[in-house]
Amino acid sequence: MLGGAGLLGLAVFYMMHRALVDDAYITLVQVRTLAEHGQWGLIPGHQSNTATSPLNVLVLAAVTLVVRDPVVATGVVYVATSVGLAWALTDLGRSTGTGLRLAVVGTPLLLLNPLLASTMGLETNLAVTLVMSLTAAAARGSVRGFGLLGGALLLTRLDLVVVVGVLAVATPAVRRRLGAAAGWATLVCLPWFMFSWVVLGSVVPDTLLIKQDAHWGNLATALFTRYDHPYKLAVVGATTAAAIGLVALAAWPWWRRWREVPASGAVAATGLAGIAYMLTFKVLGVPPFFWYYGVPLACLSVCAATLACALPLRWSTRWARLAGFAVAAAGLSPMLLSWTLDAGHVPLAGALVRGNWALPGQYARIGERLPHLVGNLPVHSPGEIGDLLYHCNCTMVDKFSDRALLAPAIEQRQDSSWLYRLNYLWLDPSTLHRIRTPLRLAWQRGPDRAAPGWDVSGPQRGQGHLALLPSTRLSGLSDPTRTVIVIGSQPARGQPRAAPRHHGK
């Protein structure tokens, strides 16, 4: 089973390795900076604290030191987490009485989920594997294992404390020894949080500020109103198993009495934890980035997988076996259909679910061209920075890479909230100095084949055009008809081309 999970993970990585979304490339830039320069941030020499998942960055950087390529490191870690997921589900199967069946059904339900696959490079798949491992530890009543895994989850994403908390309260063995579990968790995560607080200037990464300042979409409905139109099959495939899991969760008071499934309470608690986690994002007021749905979908999907495996155990009849098979097939079939019909290319040119302004290949070509146009001059990003910065390996600036741009927001939050004052206790925003950017990449409506620059396309904004503009002419860029001096893939009249420089990753 573990070998099969590894092969399936490798196949999914191959399909996705050219289709990573822009935020995944933000992570990979942080990984490269840490692995090659030993610094925490996107740009060498400019510290920032915008890595939402410290554990993901640290693990990927450690592997990058060996394989020398962050994308290859992503594949290695993804295959490893795929094997870890199968291991965790096998362990959970032993505790719940569903045996190896749970891993056989649950592993493909999670690895082939189009939305989860589209988060590759982000921390979502690592978080899912750790959540399933935490559920297995809760099911077997291991307090130390629960605490250690809970600490690892907090390092993966601090907001996953909601999942850890719900499972801790719902598990009698852990609840009775809550202090011991908390002690083991603290042992794992406290050193990093103290380092982040004192050295990096905040316990909670600055991404919380960045995301809360972005106002678009409704988290409660966006999966079906924002992402459903361009990716209907992928959204159906991603949510069908979770919908079955909701039914299983609602029926849990009935099937929890089955002696054949003795530790089903841990599975049900995981489903409730996923729902609570989704509600936390709603309370935080963040926009509906699609990867926020990953952990809740996974938590509910494992409820569906457990029900599919438990039905034949409850009634040893042909009809019960057929019912279990039907539940599993109903969850898996839409996923397979979305991969088949949405693929288009092998490997994929774009993730099955995404929201970026350009395809990864378009951003990569622009990023590889930029150093020859701008030399050593810093460039302000057009609003998406990961893919461009990864491929240009230059000085590209926005709130993710230049903390000084966040200084006003940090000061405002410090004035209005004692929690933010505590979070930024060791940071003085007045000491932050902005990186001056004489040039800026700007997105305009397109295509515009007559103007220098690059035509791009994305599902949310449609056809666009990226142009390299002098920063002194930024006013009025929202007007696509405005005439501007452009430095792009072709030099504008009277505008000298910047001297090229040698460039390499």
Molecular structure report:
- The protein is mostly helical and 505 residues long.
- Helix content is 58%, strand content 5%.
- The protein is built from 22 helices and 5 strands.
- It has helices at 2-16, 22-37, 54-67, 70-96, 100-111, 114-118, 124-139, 143-156, 161-170, 172-176, 178-198, 207-212, 222-225, 232-250, 252-255, 264-284, 294-314, 318-342, 360-374, 386-392, 407-416, 418-423, and strands at 379-380, 396-397, 439-445, 454-458, 462-470.
- The chain is globular.
- The two termini are 38 Å apart.
- Rounded to the nearest angstrom, the distance between the terminal CA atoms is 38 Å
H/E element sequence? HHHHHHHHHHHHHHHHHHHEHEHHEEE
In the sheet with the most strands, the strands line up as: 2-1-3-5-4
Unreliable residue runs:
473-505
The proportion of residues in beta strands is: under 5%
- What number is the mean pLDDT? 87
Q: What proportion of the residues is helical, as a percent range?
A: 55-70%
Largest sheet: 5 strands, mixed
| Cα-based radius of gyration, to the nearest Å | 24 Å
Q: Strand pairing plus helix content: what structural class?
A: mainly alpha
> How many beta strands in the DSSP annotation?
5
Which term fits the overall shape?
A: globular
Number of helices: 22
